[in-house]
Design goal:
Layout: E1 9-16, E2 19-26, H1 31-38, E3 57-60, E4 63-66, E5 79-81, H2 94-102, H3 111-124, H4 130-136, H5 148-158
Parallel strand pairs: 1-5
Antiparallel strand pairs: 1-2, 3-4, 3-5
């Protein structure tokens, strides 16, 4: 293998779930792969690899993003939250608890992204209507629940059973 065929590795540093990480990775490596393989946080899932399903969603500097579309170099200096950073120790976040209580989590592939999308929505709109919940989660696909249990989960988490 020639040197030109090996991707140049660059240093990158960021904070994931409150913990600082510094590593070297190919500049165009997907943030998804670095999180899963280098940092060993496997809660973030790969569904489609094309930014269409939301399974790989993380919160990057306060914004919900599809980590399969973000080159790791763009995360330099960023603050990232993955599903592993949502609970406080053994205490589930109200959104996580609502997903369990309402049956919003089934096979688990979409759940991390749905939870993070819900958190992002509720951060911007703490009391969304059903239509706003649908719109807020529109970038996330689920093949198990038919969505109603997920929408119920978000409504329960914010206390609005609309």
């Amino acid at each position: 293998m020639s040197k030109s065929s090996v991707a140049k590795r660059v240093p990158v540093s960021f904070t994931v779930n409150g913990k600082s990480h510094s590593l070297e990775a190919p500049a165009m490596a997907r943030l998804l792969d670095v999180i899963r393989e280098d940092i060993q946080l496997t809660g973030t899932k790969e569904g489609c690899g094309e930014g269409e399903c939301g399974a790989c969603s993380v919160i990057l500097n306060g914004e919900l993003v599809n980590s399969c579309l973000v080159p790791v170099i763009q995360a330099q200096g960023a603050k990232i939250t993955t599903i592993e950073g949502v609970a406080q120790g053994d205490v589930l976040h109200p959104v996580q608890k609502a997903f369990l209580e309402c049956g919003g989590a089934q096979c688990g592939i979409c759940t991390p992204g749905m939870v993070l999308a819900s958190l992002s929505l509720l951060e911007k709109n703490p009391n969304p209507t059903r239509d706003e919940i649908r719109e807020g989660l529109a970038g996330n696909l689920c093949r198990c629940t038919g969505y109603m249990k997920i929408f119920d989960s978000v409504a329960r988490a914010c206390g609005s059973q609309q």
